[in-house]
User: Fold this.
Amino acid sequence: MIRRRKQVNQTKTNNVNNDEEKQEIFDELDKNINQFKEIFGSDSDLFVRYIQGEHRKVAVLYLESLVEKEIIDQHVIFALNSQLHNLTSAINDIAVSTNEMKKLTKHDEVLEHLLRGYSIILMDGNNIAYAAETSGGERRPVSESTVETVVRGPRESFNESLMTGVGLIRKRVNTPKLQVYKKSIGQESKTSVAVLYISGIAKDDIVKEVISRIDKINIDGILDSLYVEELIEDTKSYTPFPTIFNSERPDRIAAGLLEGRIAIMVDGTPVVLLVPATIGLFLTSNEDYYQRYDIASFMKMLRTFAFILSLALPGLYVALLTFHQEMIPTPLLIAMSGQREGVPLGIAIEIFIMDIIFEILREAGIRLPKTVGAAVSIVGGLVLGQAAVEASLVGQATVIVVALTAICSFTTPSYNIAITARLLRFVLLLFSAVLGAFGLIFSLIFLFIHLNSIRSFSVPYLAPLVPFHKDDWKDLFVRVPWRNMKERPEEITNDDQNRMQSASNERH
Assistant:
């Protein structure tokens, strides 16, 4: 009963506040300022600067933490001071030299623009306010990516500023067809979200679906792009595989836009989302397009093979040594059996324990400071592995298999799908420990069936494998020369599928 009364009182309070915010601006300057101070608090970062004219008093309101003070001083305050003798009862005579100037008549409009870094100009005796664009404050500069590193290629990465990110994209996709749809999400955070796509290349149905899902988001706050990712992804069936790609490199996002994909940028985070996503996108590195096609093809095949090893190698090792020893060459089997003399645990339990220990070491290395984390993970792995072998707790081959599996997982370009492989590795290990190679093969078949059922905004996850598109294989497991990749991916592209004109690029 008490809780219900609190909820009713809270609802009444919210309704009163909403009614106050929707009302029009008062004629009295002091009354307006007092109301805004009451909303933000007397000791908040709301700053009020008064300018006394010959006929009217003017006030400039802004939040110190969200504005660029130099812009206010040079383009707002200085401009108003120079117009003091012209300030009459008409606020329409005021002009400032900022990028944007808006006319406001409601209190909620004033609050919205204050929270977006605008400066509000109010005049005594007028019920109209003007919002001057003065957003700024401390921002991290554009720097090199520390996660998606390349040997050759651009070094820029996104920062936490939405407009800076849009600018980095426009520098690479310099076309008026690049469309930007902006929306504020979050009842309390009012976080700006932008949807970017190239008109004529991206499918209209997918664009409408993305915007529709974003418009349906109803949450109190958005603090990272992962919030949006989980709220708009397909929820018809659970899958541990990521169905939305993310990157902090502008060149990677620009390449996705040119293929017909759609980018989702969230203010306050450097990670940009890209949809629709297929499994080939997660196994592709930025550097595949900055190296020669033959070298890039070899590296793509190597990474694909390493990804499969990181997923199935422990299960295959357990299946061979436990159920199918006749498939191992005799000298190798004798050597491995001799190493296991005196080891008390079964092979599957050994692999499981060593994998868990390595995951703990990897997590500890991530959470510790950078100067200490690498040393802890390396030294911890060497010391624990050597000590476990000398104590006859695990076999030497087990340590080698676990280490090789971990190294293979590091070659996966996308961190999201690498985590998925680490999780599914234990599932395949369980099936292999119970049924041997049959369990491993059956689990891989079930995994392929599951991948075939996944959709990312109506696009099959295994495209162009299933459904089969022969032309799209040119950039799947290998990368053919650019002169042979004349068309965009069929599943995600609109009518404009040609990325290269044949006649002008044929070499004789």
